[in-house]
Each structure stands twice: as C-alpha cells, then as structure tokens.
Amino acid sequence: MTALSPAHPSLQIYNTLTKRKEPFQTVEPGKVGIYLCGPTVYDKAHIGHMVGPVIFDCIKRYLVYCGYEVTWVVNITDVDDKLIAKAYERGISMLEVAEENIADYNGNLAALGVDQIDHFPRATECMDEIIAIIESLVEQGFAYESEGDVYFDVGKDAGYGKLSNRTVDAMQGEGGGTASRKRGLADFALWKSAKPEEPSWDSVWGKGRPGWHIECSAMSKKLLGETFDIHGGGLDLVFPHHENEIAQSECCHRKPMVTYWAHNGLLRASNATGKVGGRGELEEPGEGGKMSRSKGAGGLADLIASQGGERIRFFLLRTHYRSTVLFNEPAIEEAGVGMETYYRFFKRFERVTGQSIFDLEVPKTRAAGEIDAGPSGLLAEVSELRNKFLAAMDDDFNTGGAVGELFELVRKLNKYCDDHELETESKQSGKVEPFVRGATTLRELASILGVFSKPQAEGGGSSDALLGQVMQLVIDLRTEARANKNFATADAIRDGIEPLGIVLEDRTGGTEWSGGNDETLNGIMQLLIELRQTARANKDFATSDTIRDRLADSGVTLEDRPSGTEWSQG
RNA sequence: GGCGCCGUGGCCAAGUGGCUAAGGCAUCGGAUUGCAAAUCCGACAUCGGCGGUUCGAAUCCGCCCGGCGCCUCCA
Length: 570
Known about the structure:
The chain is α/β, with parallel strands linked by helices. The protein has three domains: 255 residues, HUPs (Rossmann fold); 118 residues, Anticodon-binding domain of a subclass of class I aminoacyl-tRNA synthetases (Four Helix Bundle (Hemerythrin (Met), subunit A)); 110 residues, no CATH class. Helices cover 43% and strands 15% of the residues.
C-alpha cells in the first residue's frame, strides 16, 4: 500500500470499509479524488437521488475551502437492462431514453445548487476502458468467459465481502436464467452477450454490453486513477454494487481502489399529513417506506417547482448525511420557514449598510476566513461560532450540527443590531464595521453549505410591477391614516390585505411589504375600490381622487357603474 | 435465517464518558410596536425500559421493548 499524505489536523471521515471515523489522508498531497455513483438513467429521478449529490457538493466545497484541489466525478450509467427494456417499451432508442433522463437529472442538480461536479462520464463513452479491464481480469484468472458472457469468479478473490461484511457462503448470488453459465452462485457478470436486437459493442467474446458494476471500475480508473480518495453512494449500493467494484478494481490492479468509502443514508417517504398535534394516524400510512422508482416515487421536478430547490437542499442538509431521513412536504416547508430568518436578516443588512449582503467579498478558504476579533465582543462570539461550525464539518461533514451554529450566528447578528440600534442610530461606523465582518462570516459559512449565495427568487407578487405600484399606493394611504391617528383605517387596510397573502412591516425607514401571489392584485384593487367608496361616502374627495389618479398613473382605469366600481388595465 | 442501523422536549434534530443536553418548527410569557409583523429575552426534555461498568453515562457493556435497512433492481 502506497503511503498516504500526512493526516489533516482536524478532519475526520467515517469509512464504511473500516466502520469507524478516520483522520483524512490523501493519495496525493493536497489533492482529492472523489467518485460518486450517479443514476442509471432509465427513468426520472426522485428526491432520494439528490441526497448524494447534495452532500458531496458540500463535501467538495468544504475540502476546497480547506485548501485541497478536488476532482469530483459523478458517473451516468446509460447502458443497462432497464434502459433496454424502457426503450423497447416506448419504441425509442436506448440513447434517447438516456438523453431524456440525463436532462431531467441535470435540471434537478441545477435547481438544488449542485454545481461542483467536474466530470460526468457516461458508460457508453468508456467502452474501451471497460473492455480492457475485463480482458485484464480474464487474463489474470479472476474472470472467465462462458457462452459469450464473462463472469467474475468471486472464489478467486480472497478479500471479497470486506466492504459489506459478508462471506461468500452466505450469498445467494444472482441465480435466475444465467445461473447455469456461472461457476459459483455468487459470481457476477462483467459482460453480457447481446441478443440480436439489443444494443451491443464488439469484444473478443462477441457482441455484448457491460454488466452493472464494471463501468464504475473503468470510469473511476480513467478519471481518478487506480487508487483514489473517496467513493460515495447510497447505503443501498454497498452490496452488491460497491463490493463488486472493489473486487474488480483491486483484483485487476492489485492495490487498494479507494481509501474512504462514504455512504449516505436513504430517504424514506412519509405521509405525515397530520403531524400537528400528534398522531396523524387516521389515514392508514401504507405508502410510508423507502423511496424507490419501482414503487412509483418520482416527480422530483414537480417537488422542486412547488418547494424550490434551495429549500430541498437546506432540508437535506439539516441532518447528518448518514442518517435515514423521513421525507415529506410539510417537513420541507418547515425547513423553508427557518430559511426565511436568513433572508429577513439579509434585508436588514441592506437597510443598515446600504449594500447587498450578496455583494460582500467572502473568504474562500479556511485560512482567509480567520477572524481577528480585536476588542469587539461581537467578533469574539462570531469567531467562536465559526469554530464550532468548522468543528462540526470536520466531524464527518456534520452539516446538521453546522446548520445549528449558523442559526446561532444570525441570532447574534440580529441581537447586535438591536442592541446598537443599527437601523435607527446615526450609524457610528465603529459599530457597523464588526456587524459587516460578522455578516461576511455568515455568508462564508453558508457558502460551504452552498446556500444563500444569491437573493431569494421573488415569488409571484413582488416581481409584478403593477402590483408594486398599487401596493405603494396602499401603503401611502395607510401611512397618511396613521399620521392622522386614524388607526381604524390603518388597521382596516392591513387586515384587508392579510388574507391576500401580504404582510406589512412598519420600519423606521418606511413600511415594507412582502408576499402575494397571482390572486393578490385583484384583491388589492377591490380593497382600494372600497377605500375610495368609503372616502366618497365621507365626502373625503381628496382621498378618493388620489386613489383614482394614482391608479390612472399606473395605467388602471376605474369605472363607477350602478352595480359597483370596476377596474381595468391598459 | 445472516449482516447492520435507529429510539434525545409536541414535531424535526445535533451531541457518543464529565461545563446549566445545540439548533429549527410549534406553543406560552415578556421587551419592542398606536396595533401588528419582524427582532430580542425567557419558559418548555435527564435522553425507549431494566440491570451493569465507572468517582462520573444520553454517551461503554448486557438483556428487554419498539421502529427500520440490506441480503433481489435501487441514490
């Protein structure tokens, strides 16, 4: 075994192979190679397929932050029995099935902010490498040809079973139709002979295609070398997929394939419809259980559309990657509620400093982010929270613990803002400076998790220009009412728009509004019409005219008819 | 049957030998606000049960109860 680099001073990684946390050492000093098993693209992805990509996206971000040069590979298995079956079923080519689902997969990754992948190899593009490994295994006596198929001879591999902790005797093997071609039940296919109509590649054993497993041995070797640092995947891949990968690669190369095997826990669907107030067991669960495409799980694209990718990412990151996560939409919404705290703080930051928090220059490395606390009590606390955050990440990438520290950090910053009245005082620069430094650290840590890197996508309401103008009118009317101590009217306005999904917040600099959806505009118009009606009834023609004139400025016409007032645009 | 995981406040979830058991959501008080919203402060668990090891355990060991995963395609 080649000597590994000296261990990182604090980073520990849990290794499925040794079943414990180990100090982090690399094959090459300063460099890290990561291989994550990606999807077999015979169908659309479900949320479970995103756990690996999201956590490894964070892992890469963190390793880079710690100063490593990282290469991250995620493979696409685009040749497989299921793809062939799907293509046949739909009357299209295997390639078309693959392209369609790869596009879906890429769209999902982008929505969840997974943008750190360096290589996306496809099995069909690595056929030469795949065949070369199989040939080598046959040559070395670890594999044998049988009626056009090639099988790995598990009995020849003394180390077989070490990852999944099982013995060859205890294994059932594939059995089934090809059992008669195998020497041992546990032997598995490296190459499968093709039937006339099936997609195939030429080989010394005749036309055929690779078995499942071998493509990963070939692609990881091609892009990361014979021995690399981290190999990831879902816990369900430990056996047989990864066990077989190790067998193939290590027998072929006679050296360790991977230093650390990192497996993420699986997601479980949970229909926690009635979680409020306890036992929501009225509706018999039944659909609770493992996420699986064969059980109809899917619709990730729909979920992203309704929840937003960042919420899903944040939801996944709230827990440790090795634990099982019960997943349901209310839980994602709950995570979303927590995220709002940050976005509200970001707005507050802008009110205080006049600049967007997203424009801050954020430290890119662990060393660069060190805080010189100086005399400020705030920065001493920020520094401590930062250390705790990093300690959590050092401890097998414990993003759940890290998120907790991040919440503490926003609270500290909000409190500092309160205590020093940063929003109202004549901003003494000495007070604002540490605040900005602390906020910079918040963004620095968030960037490790891959969240809060840009302004929140404004939903429906706020992006509508007309609604914005109309809301400003509503706010002005209310402000005037408040100035005149006419609180009844002021409250009527707020109470009137609350059901429309809009919340008003009175601040020192003026009133802000947020929320709204497609239905909101019409509701606001009706409210304005009522306000104008009331004003006219009270002979307050100044107000009623103001309403009509300002609406006219925005291109809205009011027409008073016997049946009531109607509005139209344009 | 074999291998393995889990059980921490109403819900989610960090913590795996020793400061007052993080944090989020929810709830209830308080400060603040004309009223709100937001923000801040405070309240809310002794860690499934029993027994053991230890000066000391949620954290280690044993048994029990209760969930779950893999052993077949699966992130």
